[in-house]
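G.,

No rush on this.
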Amino acid sequence: MHRILGTVPPTSEESSSSAELRTSPMDDDRPHSSSSGTGEGSPTLVWGEDLLNIFLQYRHRCAFVVHEARFVQKFQRHLQVGAESRDSMHPSLVNAVFLVACHFASASGDTRYEEYEGYFLRKTREELETSLTAADRLTDFVYATTLACVVLFC
């Protein structure tokens, strides 16, 4: 099973009191894709693979046509070694994939990830700025921007 660095999402009991999206930059109960590698002591996000599978199921609705095996391989490389490797996916694209997955899961009636849509939008925007500032993996920047636009304007 593939895992992504982040925090474990709150249980339904914990999140029932926080139905509104929180947009504080330090939301500890929100999952995240770290640009660092697999740091020691970092909790893992167990449902990263689920979000990737949801994204792959709906990617054609975004007109996102890529070689699936290569895309998944690059995504998995990011999960294994983090963003330091130029061969891995930029965190902006990882977060955009999770954003789209949350969006389409919610639209299809699966509310498990609905509350994380705002979080992943914020993380995508932050990482897009980082990518553009450093001129880092600009192809991933274009893909992530396009995916974020699908969520914002569709």
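When you get to it, here's the other one too:
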Amino acid sequence: MQSPTKIKIPKIISFGRLIGPGGCNLKPIEEETGTHIYVITDAKPPHIEVKINEKITLLSCKDRIKEASDKLKELMKTIDLEMKNRQKNTVKKKVNNNNHKENHYEKSKRWKENNLKRERIASERK
């Protein structure tokens, strides 16, 4: 029996996003590779353990663990990119919101100036 392989989980990746709803991110990898995948969150650093599923005899143990490890690393890269893109979009939204506030301020300032002009003209006519 081969010892489990450990893969460190980067800090940017949340455990829930890694596992997916109902394990939808990890279960397909387990089924395709004939392994068991455990997310160890209480260890420092948090990591994933990949062990051989003894009930399945597909490929050699090394091949199954390597394939599962490769797929997990690819999954983490994808999640990492999604998180970085989400952070960029959040920063862009904040910038756009600030611009919107400035535009709103300028519009209200213009509106007040126009009202003052109208009042002055109206008072001059009287």
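The chain has three helices and three strands. The first strand starts at residue 5 and ends at 8.

Enjoy the weekend,
O.
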